[in-house]
Design brief:
Blueprint: E1 24-26, E2 33-35, H1 36-41, H2 57-64, E3 71-73, H3 88-99, E4 105-112, E5 115-122, H4 133-148, E6 152-159, H5 168-186, E7 191-199, H6 201-204, E8 213-216, H7 227-234, H8 245-250, E9 256-257, H9 263-274
Parallel strand pairs: 5-6, 6-7, 7-8, 8-9
Antiparallel strand pairs: 1-2, 3-4, 4-5
């Protein structure tokens, strides 16, 4: 006869979580556990290794624009289901409720260092910031607004690519956005593209990489297809750092790599040069 009775797992009660949700965040680069409030105050840049976490559109705006200068445009544009894709609108509504956004990009007028701009900021939380008809339309309208009002355009990209739920209609946005940018260029107005982690697919192959100046955050992934797909297609080993901002700067696609803490100051300085002589 045993002196001790072995307790069952059910008798131990509910398992306690080692890390309360939303309080601590583990850095995917260095593995350090970071206090979320401290991370937020540091613009979501790891205090140990400087890894740049993704930002929401609202967080991005807070780090960039002059105080109370942002005026959102086309906030009410909403997706439809042109191909009858199963439960597509249900997914859209779920992400709208989760993020508080209508779609995966926020656009509007603002000033940065006193310089008049139109911004488009993609938010990866919304369906991986995939580019559907509404995303393409909002970015196109933002560019056209900037052209009409003699403003610079700045687009912050972070996307998994074209939205498969809309098929060829999503791919059409590549040409539409670039057409608007061509007219903006003809008006001798600047376009600054800022690539953040990750920027892939049809977004990379269109408006994200045709800026008058292409900037990127450190170590962000930039590419068309993912590295696994590229390797399986080419049957070749990929070079070290393939598809990172640093690799692409060395090979001429990226002009500058700008840490997040320096982004507002850098944009203000660059806008001062590019908008010199532009009538207001």
């Amino acid at each position: 006869m045993g002196f001790f009775k072995k307790r069952s797992l059910n008798e131990l009660g509910e398992k306690k979580k080692d890390m309360p949700e939303g309080v601590w965040v583990k850095c995917p680069s260095c593995g350090e556990s970071l206090y979320d409030q401290t991370l937020a105050k540091n613009m979501r840049v790891c205090t140990h290794c400087s890894y740049h976490f993704t930002l929401s559109a609202a967080e991005r705006l807070e780090t960039l624009v002059d105080e109370e200068s942002f005026e959102e445009i086309d906030a009410a544009l909403d997706s439809v289901n042109p191909l009858g894709f199963d439960n597509y609108l249900g997914k859209v509504k779920a992400y709208q409720a989760k993020t508080g956004l209508t779609e995966a990009v926020v656009t509007g007028r603002a000033t940065i260092g006193g310089h008049r701009v139109v911004l488009a900021i993609m938010d990866f939380r919304f369906l991986g910031a995939s580019m559907g008809s509404v995303v393409g339309e909002k970015i196109t309208r933002a560019i056209e607004t900037a052209t009409t009002e003699n403003r610079a355009v700045i687009v912050f990209s972070a996307s998994g690519g074209a939205r498969m739920h809309e098929g060829i209609l999503s791919l059409m946005q590549m040409a539409k956005t670039c057409g608007a940018l061509a007219r903006h260029h003809d008006a001798k107005l600047p376009y600054i593209s800022v690539l953040t982690h990750p920027t892939t697919g049809g977004v990379t192959a269109s408006f994200a990489t045709v800026g008058d100046l292409n900037l990127a955050e450190p170590k962000c992934m930039i590419g068309f297809a993912g590295p696994r797909v590229v390797k399986e297609t080419t049957h070749s080993d990929l070079p070290p750092g393939f598809q990172t901002a640093e690799f692409l700067k060395d090979h001429g696609l990226i002009d500058m790599i700008v840490p997040r803490h320096e982004m507002q100051q850098t944009l203000a300085r660059v806008l001062g040069y590019l908008l010199n002589g532009v009538s207001r």
